[in-house]
Amino acid sequence: MLGMSIGAFQGDEWIMKGRIGLRHANDPTPIGEDDKFYLSDAGRSITAMLAARIVEQSEGRITWLSTIADVFGESITVLSPFTDATLLDLFLHSGHILDFDQVMQTEELMEWYDQVWAASQWDMPEENMQQRMELTKFLVNIDCGDEMCQEGRYSKFTYTVAVAMLEKFTGKSFDVLLNDYVFGPLNAPDCGLGPNTLDQSLPPLQPWSHFSGPWGVYDIPVLPGNQSNMPSSMTPDDGIHCSMESWKNVLSAHLIKNETFLTEKSWSILQDPGVNLYDAFDYAPGFIVDTSNPFVTVLQHPGGDQKDYAQCVVVPGANVGIVVAANQNLQEGMRQMVGYNKIMEYVSEHLSEVAGVPINIENVQSIF
User: Fold this and answer.
1) Which residues, listed in sequence order, are joined to residue 215 by a DSSP beta bridge?
2) Which among 110, 109, 97, 91 is positioned nearest to 47, based on CA atoms?
């Protein structure tokens, strides 16, 4: 394992945590207690919490059932089947937005995606807000045909379209909205958007991302910059970073369910399954919902961009959770993944003892 940090919590308090490894494959600086990690898809639940807060405080001006056409009106052209896609549909991967495999099917779409990457930048939030608008205009004006725009396909773009709706409604950028509605109220000062560091100096100030071989034989550091993680316009889907402390503070709200933050109705929308994807797993906004455990429902989400890996686990019925992140790719077949699974097995066994119910999280390791 190159570098990893993990913690288990009950309510909003740690019950165990630890870290191993290095920030950089070619530098001896160890992972620090307050280091920030890139969450990739595992940060989707944070974007969903933002949407719930805006919906609640809008006094009915935007709802989970507001459609793309409702919010954008005549400011952009929206073709079928996107016209009737709702905010909730987008958060459940049910709004017909393309997935990555579909983007790779045509030269036009691949060229468009190359342009999204080329435009990535972290200096101006307002520029990323405009890029999200342009991304949305493109994605909701696609001639779908028979095989594209299928409902219920896991998409790396759908939360970005949803946030473009929220930015259109509020007139504020994703960065500002997250700080005002989520990070500030939940005491998460170490969360932000984009790479966990843009500093290219050594020794590293934060963990660098790394490409890793499929068998975990080599680790190649990725120089921090505008393209070192996913494109800046796509941060609502794949682009939040946090320290373990700040991530825990955000996710513990799902356990406490403080109604000064969200009402019980909103917590239910965020935690109850809203769709079944691929006939394989139930999904709520930002969480895989595992109801196979007869004692408790387990909410979880892994995430990776082939240079980092993260996973969160939240068990509201037992008031416990886990956050874990690594600064390298992890996938089945790697020696490091074997070690990761052993660590998760140990932590989940300890968590089961604390909660008084068995908590099994093994069956989501390789979904994404």
Assistant:
1) none
2) 91
DSSP state string for 25-87: TTEEEEPPTT-EEE-GGGGHHHHHHHHHHHHHHTTTSS-TT-BHHHHHTTSS---TTTTT-BH
Could you report the per-residue pLDDT of 251-276, keeping only the tens digit for each?
999 999 989 999 999 999 999 999 99
DSSP run (H or E) holding 7 = strand 3-10
Structure token digits, residue 148? 């594209």
Residue 214 in tokens? 């499929």
Please identify every stretch of the chain with a pLDDT value under 70, giving residue numbers as ranges: 146, 362-368
| CA-wise closest residue to 182 among 265, 174, 157 | 174
| R_g of the chain, CA atoms, integer Å | 20
Contact, 188 vs 249, CB < 8 A?
A: yes
Give all strands (DSSP E) within 102-250, no chain letters: 192-193, 210-212, 219-221, 240-243
Stated length of the chain: 368
CA atoms within 13 A on the CB side of 363: 13
